[in-house]
């Protein structure tokens, strides 16, 4: 609870200081508060100061306007009411974002072929591990922070204490910069926000008997707020349609991804995370059909994961998703034992930002 309250107080103090200074100085150059506020909830966009979508105090501000913040997907960010009359609205096209990942299994950072995961009671004889790192989850988190990457996800591939501890250490290393998933429910979701997660990621918990469990979904949205919730809609092909899969991607649901489903679920979440399970972890190339579906129909930010092997795959996602689908790369990266240089992907990410602004 402590870190969350401290961040709220810091943001409020930062905004208060900025509004005081803004009355004395015209809007130009860098944000006036930059040297004094570590969290930096405000961002300067084309002469308009806006509150970051990740800010905890958005409720103190007016209704959202669609603009784009650095290193963010097109999102709703909020402008201080005192500033609206003094600024002009700009239409800014946002770029595709690379979202980093940290997958944790039994306390270790690993890259596992997701479709081989099973419940612990079934054993792990069929588990295929592509890579196990000597670095801790916190070390990866710090690297992502240093490289200015946001919106990445920490996934606990098991509910064991070692994985939970490693995930929390990663959140502490990069407060507000990472999402967390794996075993999230309405009773523990808020605790991960308090530990520093920007969002919690949920999947199996909100599905029951092949359908969406609306009571659980509402409980989660009430517990942490829709703006802190990411729905994992990872899917597999079934009868030429994409069915959401749960329980370590082993069980098909009766929920198929299409415009109607995505529009409806967007009422309960801030973002979607979608693994193309048929290609995930296999480095066989991306599922362009799935990416195209997400680009056409997702009304909120969505991140695709699965099959990226080369830099060309990143461009394919950009094209197939019409610039509206973010991307995660796992096993293919050299930091996870693959051949794709992490620094090249980070450079590509920076290029997308530059093109967007």
Automatic annotation (TrEMBL):
Enzyme class per UniProt: isomerase
Primary site of residence: plastid
Provenance organism: Sesamum angolense
UniProt catalytic activity: 1-(5-phospho-beta-D-ribosyl)-5-[(5-phospho-beta-D-ribosylamino)methylideneamino]imidazole-4-carboxamide = 5-[(5-phospho-1-deoxy-D-ribulos-1-ylimino)methylamino]-1-(5-phospho-beta-D-ribosyl)imidazole-4-carboxamide
EC number: 5.3.1.16
Keywords: Amino-acid biosynthesis, Chloroplast, Histidine biosynthesis, Isomerase, Plastid, Sodium
Subcellular locations according to the entry: Plastid, Chloroplast
Pfam family, one: His_biosynth
GO cellular component terms, A-Z: chloroplast
Any one GO MF annotation of this record: 1-(5-phosphoribosyl)-5-[(5-phosphoribosylamino)methylideneamino]imidazole-4-carboxamide isomerase activity
Pathway(s) this gene product operates in, as recorded in its UniProt entry: Amino-acid biosynthesis; L-histidine biosynthesis; L-histidine from 5-phospho-alpha-D-ribose 1-diphosphate: step 4/9
Cofactor needs: Na(+)
Superkingdom assignment: Eukaryota
Family (UniProt): Belongs to the HisA/HisF family.
GO biological process, one term: L-tryptophan biosynthetic process
Name of the protein in question: 1-(5-phosphoribosyl)-5-[(5-phosphoribosylamino)methylideneamino] imidazole-4-carboxamide isomerase HISN3, chloroplastic
């Amino acid at each position: 609870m402590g870190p969350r309250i401290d961040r709220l107080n810091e943001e409020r103090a930062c905004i208060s200081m900025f509004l005081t200074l803004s009355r004395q100085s015209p809007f130009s150059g860098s944000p006036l508060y930059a040297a004094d506020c570590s969290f930096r909830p405000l961002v300067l966009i084309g002469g308009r100061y806006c509150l970051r979508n990740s800010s905890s105090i958005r409720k103190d501000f007016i209704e959202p306007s669609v603009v784009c913040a650095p290193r963010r997907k097109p999102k709703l960010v909020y402008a201080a009411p005192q500033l609206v009359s003094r600024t002009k609205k700009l239409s800014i096209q946002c770029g595709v974002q690379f979202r980093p990942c940290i997958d944790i299994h039994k306390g270790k950072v690993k890259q596992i072929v997701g479709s081989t995961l099973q419940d612990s009671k079934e054993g792990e004889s069929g588990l295929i591990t592509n890579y196990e790192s000597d670095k801790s989850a916190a070390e990866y988190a710090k690297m992502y922070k240093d490289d200015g990457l946001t919106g990445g996800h920490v996934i606990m591939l098991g509910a064991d204490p070692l994985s939970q501890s490693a995930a929390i250490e990663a959140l502490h290393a990069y407060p507000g910069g990472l999402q967390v998933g794996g075993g999230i429910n309405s009773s523990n979701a808020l605790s991960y926000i308090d530990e520093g997660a920007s969002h919690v990621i949920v999947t199996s918990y909100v599905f029951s008997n092949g359908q969406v469990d609306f009571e659980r979904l509402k409980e989660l949205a009430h517990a942490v707020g829709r703006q802190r919730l990411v729905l994992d809609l990872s899917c597999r092909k079934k009868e030429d349609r994409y069915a959401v899969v749960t329980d370590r991607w082993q069980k098909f649901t009766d929920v198929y991804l299409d415009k109607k489903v995505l529009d409806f679920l967007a009422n309960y979440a801030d973002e979607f995370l979608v693994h193309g399970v048929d290609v995930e972890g296999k480095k066989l190339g991306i599922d362009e059909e799935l990416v195209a579906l997400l680009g056409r129909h997702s009304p909120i930010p969505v991140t695709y994961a699965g099959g990226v092997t080369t830099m060309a795959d990143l461009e394919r996602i950009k094209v197939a998703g019409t610039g509206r689908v973010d991307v995660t790369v796992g096993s293919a990266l050299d930091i996870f034992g693959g051949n794709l240089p992490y620094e090249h992907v980070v450079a590509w990410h920076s290029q997308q930002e530059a093109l967007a602004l």
